[in-house]
């Protein structure tokens, strides 16, 4: 009455786990000799001539035909029989018995001999239970591709610096702060400058002389007009002076382009002289995106290659552009190279300093063996895939990879077109293959000729 029994669900779980593990391990014991692999562990049995193998003898003797020294005859090591616990594969014995941990009978395993390809047998029902799916290895084209980060910057070609060209005093400033938006032709300030007044007077005088047909008068008028232009007076203001026949003591200045004020160096009433920077205007109709590219990705990037830019925070996705310029120097710390992408920015949503995602595309690589990334088992030291050899037979294979692009990987070695690779449920099969590989290594002789022995009697 005092005894307590495990619940039915717990017993069921233990039984299912035991049966699945036992059946999976039992069917996984089948190994086949790889007929193409010739890397056998070898031992010596007599000596023979390497050129005339029918001539045999003892160590140190020579061939009577070619006088070459006889060399050892190498023979394959015979396969060995081991007994392993299906639940605890670290328990290995040279003879039949039971596992000291769980009491199960040890299973017979043939290991050693020629190098072996581990084959795992998985019945159809077990494949369904594991949710296994396969995909055929095919040849195709992958576009070289880099996903990186970039920063939005001003288009340096759209920055306008307004400098003083005459001495004078700033009056009636309409630009009051950095960041203020202006349109081309907007009034900015007036400048009182005796130098500008004198230049206007000369222009009006030349204008009076030009009424005659004298060629010299026409040339004088042209030079007087050019002088006003070089002093920074706009065409609009020159026409106003010409029409009114009067000089302006306070000359108005207007915005030369659309944009916003990124630098403001003067205030109302300040005295200026030639060379002083008054304003800096930036047009955001186009911007630059500067992106970093690592050293191993630089060889296939070139100007004109397409690029996509995404600024998720601004709700901008897949903005199309191209590589406008590749900077010649590498960052000495990160070893990264910078590339520049020029983008249209009609809505002005991309602002300098914004962090964006950048996708750069190189040229295509054609006729590649391609597998999905989900088929890969990446350990950090190597990459493996599970290959389906028949309806119920599978093997774990090491592969060498090339480029990896958007969920697909190029296979350089280890597979061929037409192979079926497992893309779902492959991890248990790979684990089983790893266990059997460990059993093979247990049977291999150590360099001193001895075998590893983990027998439990």
UniProtKB/TrEMBL annotation:
Residues 47-72, 82-109 form the Heavy metal binding domain. The keyword ATP-binding does not apply. GO terms for molecular function: transition metal ion binding; transmembrane transporter activity. SUPFAM superfamilies: HlyD-like secretion proteins (SSF111369). It comes from the Bacteria. Residues 438-457 are annotated as: Disordered. Residues 369-425 form the Multidrug resistance protein MdtA-like C-terminal permuted SH3 domain. InterPro entries: 3HB_CusB, Beta-barrel_RND_2, BSH_CusB, HMBD, MdtA-like_C, MFP_Cation_Efflux, RND_pump_MFP. One of its GO terms (cellular component) is membrane. Keywords: Ion transport, Signal, Transport. Residues 161-281 form the CusB-like barrel-sandwich hybrid domain. Residues 287-361 form the CusB-like beta-barrel domain. Residues 195-246 form the CusB-like three alpha-helical bundle domain. One of its GO terms (biological process) is copper ion export. Belongs to the membrane fusion protein (MFP) (TC 8.A.1) family. This is Copper/silver efflux pump MFP component CusB. The gene is cusB.
